[in-house]
Design brief:
There is one protein chain. By secondary structure, the protein is mainly beta. The protein has 2 helices and 72 strands. The protein starts with a strand and ends with a strand.
Length: 844
């Protein structure tokens, strides 16, 4: 789109403080934007234009108005004016007589702007006429353009957006919300922003033709987010490079002719609906193993890049595109089995064209790979069928290069494999079968995605089994087998394993194992291990002295009594037992846990262990979960803690004054025995606090300090009361400050009439007897809480009869639920008082 830049001498000349324009051209706020305090006194420039030109005023942040004229709109493109000034405050406001005639605005961080000048927020809600908005290279975290009904082009690349609110618009056709990425490495460049708005509502824009979302990560969309462009059937150009996407649906985007989605995680994709001519598709650096293609003849597709994926000769499509790039591809996993046979028959031919295999290995003590041969007396292998190879002796680092004339630019290779006879045992596990359960499941993550061989207890090594290659989330693929003995051995390369998961299965209702469990494990060779999970097993000890790189250890529900490892990098540790309100599985009880040996620990879980942990040395601890340990008091001293969970203990006091971390502090104390006055001291930064299911009443809740976030205080335990000669004293619950409590008595399912008792300041005197009487109490100061008394037996007080008769002659007064006296004539809920009798009534 054509843009003509114009310097207006008049605009420059009018850049001084002046009074407002004449009343017939009265100014209103058109738009505003904010900057960090560090930007004050810095210079900034932005570009703006309006239909037929207009006068504007700019308040640079100090309340003074500066006059400018901005350029005319020429009908063919935007002719804009440069507005330059010095920032005098955190919010800059632009005034115009009619915001709707402003048609172009560019607030992109300009090279001429000072280094500290970044826009962090903006209000464009009145700019109904802006057709192009540029905001690139700033630090916006949210942006709402839902009111910009004329917007055609939006550029907000290289910001820090986590939320983008789009208009429902048929004219917005082009959006750039990308980050600056390096296509060669798949990483963000140093000057990139951190926009993360893949999950925006793109369906609002039925005529969107160009969308650029490079560098927005799918993993940051949240649990229920998705990148959905199925409604954008006019989309012609989509750039979604380096987005960590595992899948994408473009089957509805039939107009798409430029599709760049390099450096993602696709394993398959359907492009059959791409019917636009001269299409160009860049899908290199994914994990594609299959693809469905449209017509790829020369006039239909000009460029297709499928390099650096997981295609082989068996899966790589034959394509007629003029520029088809398919080399290189990821190495094929070598399926060398325990009998030294490799079956690559799927790669033996492409159509009728045979593939050529060239094998190399370290052989007979060689210092370099040796080319293997089938010829002569020294033949190292034989071809037993097309693509099937039998090796005569154990081989080390065996790999093949495979070529086929159908794809002359591609040489496939296999990963290196070593005969099981030559491999060391890298992991052993002593196991016990559970009753009627002999299965065991584990998983590994490895930097190479290696093949391993497993002896399930009978001395025979099965395999190869391919372990998961380290990816974005370190998630291993499950390997399940039948336990055939009491010792499981695994052969492979130990130095590349970074994640091990071997959690036993349990019945959470019965609290029993439903799979084999591990009694002992040797991890000494896994020196690169970073994540370890051995939950629900029967480990009485664990030796991690060789695993210094561990970051995360989960040992939940074992039988550990000691944990003495020195792990300088460890940030997460779980030594708890399984339970919800009480322990149901596990015998962990690690005493004398020395956090001084775990200097980096941030998250610790030690629930249902019955141990009182000393957290004083856990200087970097931010989260502690200690549920169901029987604590009667707890005084945390770790100043870094921002999340503390002590549910289902026996706390009668809690002093959180030692929690002095910066930022919000969340404290969960539900299901304890707190309730006495002054039993609870919260830290100054308390944010979300849960003290429900304790013994607080209206008499003691006001002592809880206010919190910045949410205070959860309901429900609470039933209030203990006694009846003495028909008198029940609830006077301490009668008011919270100046607000009266409303009392409602029932016996069984029937309400007790207010004629059956008299009340004075919360002291109830009954003239009738009742069984299992319960009083429900509410107070407007704590609207979410209804307190109830325990059921109580009441024997009538005969002297109360005279008092009730006297009360019948007393004046009737009405109060609202806030305790303010009212007439009681309007419809609503009131407190009715006559003499010493107080009841809750509804006026209709």
């Amino acid at each position: 789109m054509k843009r003509i830049f114009t310097y207006s001498l008049l605009a420059l000349a009018l850049g001084y403080a002046s009074p407002a324009f004449a009343d017939d051209n009265a100014m209103v706020s058109a738009f505003s934007f904010s900057v960090d305090e560090a930007a004050i006194e810095s210079k900034i420039t932005f570009n703006v234009s309006a239909i037929n030109g207009t006068d504007i005023q700019v308040d640079w942040g100090n309340g003074e108005l500066n006059d400018y004229k901005i350029a005319d709109y020429d009908g063919e493109g935007w002719v804009f004016s440069e507005i330059a000034g010095t920032i005098a405050g955190k919010t800059i406001t632009v005034y115009a007589s009619d915001p709707a005639i402003i048609n172009y605005l560019d607030l992109t961080k300009d090279l001429s702007d000072d280094a500290d000048v970044y826009i962090i927020s903006a209000d464009f809600s009145l700019l109904k006429g802006v057709k192009q908005l540029d905001l690139g290279k700033n630090k916006l975290t949210t942006l709402d353009v839902s009111g910009m009904e004329s917007l055609e082009t939006l550029n907000t690349s290289d910001n820090q957006l986590t939320k983008l609110t789009l208009p429902e618009s048929e004219v917005l056709t082009s959006i750039n919300v990308s980050n600056n990425v390096n296509i060669n490495s798949g990483e963000k460049n140093e000057d990139a922003g951190d926009n993360q708005v893949l999950g925006s509502k793109w369906s609002n824009l039925p005529n969107l033709t160009t969308l650029n979302v490079n560098g927005n990560s799918a993993s940051k969309m949240g649990l229920f987010g998705s990148f959905d462009i199925s409604s954008n059937k006019s989309l012609k150009t989509l750039n979604a490079n380096c987005c960590d996407l595992s899948s994408i649906d473009v089957t509805q985007n039939t107009a798409l002719n430029t599709f760049n989605a390099q450096w993602n995680r696709f394993t398959t994709i359907d492009l059959t609906q791409m019917v636009a001519k001269k299409a160009a598709v860049m899908l290199n650096h994914n994990n594609l193993k299959s693809i469905k293609l449209p017509d790829t003849t020369e006039d239909k597709m000009t460029r297709l890049n499928l390099s650096f994926n997981a295609f082989s000769f068996a899966t790589l499509p034959t394509v007629n595109a003029t520029n088809f790039v398919y080399s290189d591809q990821q190495a094929i996993l070598n399926p060398l089995n325990g009998k030294n046979i490799v079956d690559l028959s799927a790669q033996a031919k492409v159509g009728e064209t045979e593939s050529i295999f060239k094998w190399t290995a370290y052989f007979d003590g060689s210092d370099a790979p040796v080319d293997l041969t089938t010829e002569g007396d020294n033949a190292q292998y034989s071809v037993t069928a097309p693509g099937v190879f039998q090796f005569n002796l154990p081989v080390d680092s065996l790999s093949a290069q495979i070529t086929n004339e159908v794809f002359p630019n591609l040489t496939l290779s296999t990963t290196a494999a070593t005969s099981v006879e030559l491999l060391p045992v890298m992991l052993t596990m002593d196991v016990t079968k559970a009753e009627n359960a002999d299965n065991l499941t584990f998983g590994l993550c490895d930097s190479e995605g290696q093949n391993i061989y497993i002896d399930w207890g009978d001395g025979e090594f099965d395999g190869p089994v391919t372990v998961a290659k380290l990816g974005y989330d370190y998630s291993p693929e499950e390997i399940t087998g039948t336990v055939k003995g009491d010792k499981i051995q695994i052969k492979g390369t130990a130095s590349t394993v970074e994640n091990l998961v071997a959690n036993a299965e349990i019945d959470t209702q019965a609290g029993v194992a439903t799979s084999a469990v591990i009694n002992a494990i040797d991890l000494s060779k896994l020196t690169a291990l970073k994540k370890l999970s051995l939950e629900n097993n029967a480990l009485a000890e664990i030796d991690l002295s060789n695993n210094k790189e561990l970051l995360n250890v989960k040992m939940k529900a074992n039988k550990l009594k000691a944990f003495s490892a020195e792990l300088p990098e460890l940030t997460n540790l779980d030594l708890s037992n399984y339970g919800i309100s009480e322990k149901v599985y596990g015998e962990n009880a690690v005493e004398n846990l020395d956090f001084g040996k775990l200097p980096a620990i941030k998250t610790f879980i030690g629930s249902f262990t019955g141990i009182s942990y000393d957290l004083s040395k856990a200087e970097n601890l931010t989260s502690a979960t200690l549920i169901g340990n029987g604590y009667t008091d707890f005084k945390p001293v770790s100043a870094s803690i921002t999340s503390l969970t002590l549910n289902y203990n026996n706390l009668t006091t809690f002093d959180g004054s030692g929690l002095t971390a910066n930022g919000k502090i969340n404290i969960f104390l539900t299901y304890n025995k707190l309730g006495e006055a002054d039993c609870l001291t919260l830290p100054e930064n308390a944010n979300n606090v849960n003290i429900s299911n304790n013994a607080f009443t209206f008499a003691t809740l006001p002592g809880v300090k206010s919190v910045n976030g949410t205070l959860t205080y309901a429900p609470q335990s039933d209030v203990e009361v006694t009846a003495n000669d028909g008198v029940i004293d609830l006077s301490v619950q009668a008011t919270v400050g100046e607000t009266a409590t409303v009392f409602a008595w029932t016996a069984g399912e029937e309400a007790i009439a207010d004629t059956d008792f008299s009340v004075a300041d919360g002291v109830f005197t009954f003239n009738k007897s009742f069984s299992d009487a319960v009083c429900a109490m509410t107070n407007a100061e704590f609207p979410k809480l209804t307190l109830k008394t325990i059921p109580v037996e009441i024997s009538a007080n005969s002297s109360a009869v005279d008092e009730i008769e006297t009360a019948d002659d007393a004046e009737v007064e009405y109060f609202n639920l806030q305790g303010i006296k009212v007439s009681g004539k309007e419809a609503g809920i009131y407190i009715r008082r006559q003499g010493k009798t107080t009841t809750k009534v509804i006026v209709k």
